[in-house]
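Quick note —
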Amino acid sequence: MTLIVSAIGQGLIWGILGLGLFLTFRILNFPDMTVEGTFPFGASVCVAALVHGASPLTATLLSLCAGLLTGLVTGLLYTKGKIPILLAGILVMTGIYSINLRILGKATVGLLNKPTILTTSFFNSLPEGFNSVFLGIIVVLIVISLLALFLNTDLGQAFIATGDNEKMARSLGISTDAMKILGLMISNAMISLAGGLIAQNNGYADVNMGIGTIVIGLAAIIIGEVAFGELSLTARLIAVVIGSIFYRFVLLIVLQLGFSTNDFKILSALVLALCLMLPLIERKLNLTGLISKGVKKP
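Predicted structure written out below.
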């Protein structure tokens, strides 16, 4: 039971990363590799702030601000520097590694005997494992509500239009460069917030904890889409979080089957590859069924 509750809590918090990646990967239609640097950056800023005596809320907000900064840098390199988005993200991700080492002073810093959001009196009063679930529910509800509100404003619609058809958006007077920068800032702010919360939940920050995070975020998005199909935009945001929880259950089942935690990365890649191939497999099966019934191949 404790493992199941823990998986749900982890899925909810990691779902925030999936929501951040959803903005760039699905709405703006480009991959942002900054995520693998932003996630540990948020964790490093949060842990460093807690170690130096900042309150858990202040440290968490600082992690969010760190993501705004990385998103801004990537956005400026992409829109003003005319560097391809993939390369711009990799450049920022690479530079952040050294910054994280400067912030932490070493590769890993723990939070032993340091206050965190999860050690406040309210969360301490909850049954074992339920603190991360309640924290995840609260933050996810706030994030999804704010995102849904934003996307239904004129600014949010201009942001969506930029991803749908950039040329058309530009012809309507929308500053597409500004929309891209805004999207990258919001996306990376959410990802670094997830990093700060995960660091507090795990009790440490590590400069290498960002490796593979883009696969985790994409897995949450793809699993949610495969599981629920066509949905409204707000419902898709919820589906991403549910997809993140499903993904955590997959990892839990893998652990119960005797695999090592060292296998998580390759298993994550395999799960994502399978989810990405599911539509193709479904079409192949439908086509095979039609052929077997005597329907000519189109």
